[in-house]
Structures are given as structure tokens and as C-alpha cells.
Amino acid sequence: xxxxxxxxxxxxxxxxxxxxxxxxxxxxxxxxxxxxxxxxxxxxxxxxxxxxxxxxxxxxxxxxxxxxxxxxxxxxxxxxxxxxxxxxxxxxxxxxxxxxxxxxxxxxxxxxxxxxxxxxxxxxxxxxxxxxxxxxxxxxxxxxxxxxxxxxxxxxxxxxxxxxxxxxxxxxxxxxxxxxxxxxxxxxxxxxxxxxxxxxxxxxxxxxxxxxxxxxxxxxxxxxxxxxxxxxxxxxxxxxxxxxxxxxxxxxxxxxxxxxxxxxxxxxxxxxxxxxxxxxxxxxxxxxxxxxxxxxxxxxxxxxxxxxxxxxxxxxxxxxxxx
Length: 323
Ligand SMILES: [Fe+2]
What we know:
- Pfam families: Glyoxalase (PF00903).
- Residues 160-277 form the VOC domain.
- It comes from Pseudomonas lalucatii.
- The protein contains five helices and 22 strands.
- It is globular.
- The protein has a single domain (9-128, 157-314), classed as 2,3-Dihydroxybiphenyl 1,2-Dioxygenase, domain 1 (Roll).
- The protein has helices at residues 22-32, 86-96, 171-180, 230-242, 294-297; strands spanning 9-19, 35-37, 45-48, 54-59, 75-83, 103-104, 110-113, 119-124, 138-139, 142-143, 160-168, 185-190, 194-198, 203-204, 208-212, 219-226, 247-253, 260-265, 271-276, 280-281, 288-290, 319-321.
- Residues 163, 165, 222, 224, 273 line the site of fe (ii) ion.
């Protein structure tokens, strides 16, 4: 059941990684189309999308907890959420401080942790969408691009971070903290498999996706970036492929969230996804339970076993999707 805490979240601001091969990770991020931004600390490599979403990466160091990703190896160190105002930051500090660390740093960023041990941070949102020419499409009987070629992209230029996916032992259990303590909403669910959640009633279909993983423990699975259109998914993917980076899945089209996608293996401990045309929802959106049938899951072979039927996640308002 959704618990409205009144927190005004905006989305994922920054994803912090620690990796075993920092040079390779930086090469991948640049090839992906992110802009490198020199950081005050030379050990921290900072990359940005067009709207200011950030990826921070440091060399992993098992002796330093701040540089040890959850699950070990290369992976996620901290997930930074954006909020609209200072009042939300303070309310989050009060809520989380009841039973866990909730500390502001010198920059006014609040740091805490979820029930799985994933480091979380919260800051006033810095992302800012910039305008661009919206792609026009021709459909039978509905031509909207006359005497103009469709856009073609030699490289992708990701506009913003869309969502983070994390493999866990029990997605239902993992989602409870986000629903009950942060007020996140369930957007859809793969029955027995995974839960898609958004941080605010209106906006992106999902900002975080927890899915039952084959390997025990909690581990970064993938990070998705929004690009302008399907042409940019294809152009970006072909560019990565030409550079020798390996496809993880795609190009394809998701059943849930409607996105066209292309995933690549990365040096970040999971894959990165170009995504276009994802569903945008409001409070009126009705969550659905998608049945665990093979043709739906063919897109989700991501190192995860077929459903074992153990997920008992909350989705009280869902409708069953007939296969
Ligand atoms: Fe995704």
C-alpha cells in the first residue's frame, strides 16, 4: 500500500560507482556519449548527461568502505536522489534518522542507507531539461515528416538518467523500505520476478527496479539513460558496437514501460541501457501484474533465473495481465 510521506522527489541525480578498472570505465562512459567534467578531487571521475544527471566513478578499494561497491568487484557505491526543496531534505533526515544514519555533509547532501545496505543520498535537484527539436514520425495515414529525413545519430548523447536496476534476493522485501519509508509507488510488477517503482506520482514510469537474482546478495544490474528517439538508440548502439563494446541485450522493445532499448556490457559491474519512448505516468496510472510467461521474459535473461515463484511483493492495486 502506498504511503504518502509528502516527499517531493525528482528522480535519480547521480549514480556513484567503484570499479576495478578505472581507465576502462572512463573510456566506456566517454564512448557512451557522456561529457567528462573535471572534479575537485582528481581521484573522482565525473560524467554528465545533457540535463546534468551524473555518473561518478572511483577506483574500487576493498580496504575503504566508501570505495567498496555493494556485492563487491565493480558496482554501485551510492545512489543519489534529487528532491525539490530543503523541506523535503529535512523531512527525510527526520524520517530516516529514526532508525539509521542520516547525516548531512558539508555540501548539504543527506547520506543514509536502505534496508539492504545500499548507500543512498539526497540532494536538491540540479538536473535541468534543455529543449531540442522533437522527432516527427510518419505512420500510415498520419504523415508528420514530409520531405525531411529522419534524424540519424553517429553517437548518442544521453539526455538524462532514467532508472537503476538492482538484483536482490527478494524484490518484494527490497521494495518495502522505498514504499513505506520514502513513499515510492509501484508502477508495474513482473509476477514472481521484479518490481518497478517510481519516486513521484507523476513522471517517469520507473526510477528503480528490484529483481530477484540468481546469485545471492544485492548487486548492481543496469543503469538506463534516456535518449531522444529510437534513431538515437540505434545510432548510439552501432557506435558502441563499432568500438568493440559488447551488446548485452537488444536492440529491442520492453513489454513493461514500452521503451525501445539497447544494452551493453560495461566495466561498471553491470550493463548500461539506451532507452527511448518510455511510458510517462501520473497518479492515475494503474499498476499491473505481468505474468511470468516465457515470451515476456525473453528480454529479461539478464543473468537471472526464470521465476521461482517466491516473490510476494506488495502490489495490492494491481490488475492481472492475461498472457
Ligand atoms: Fe531498464
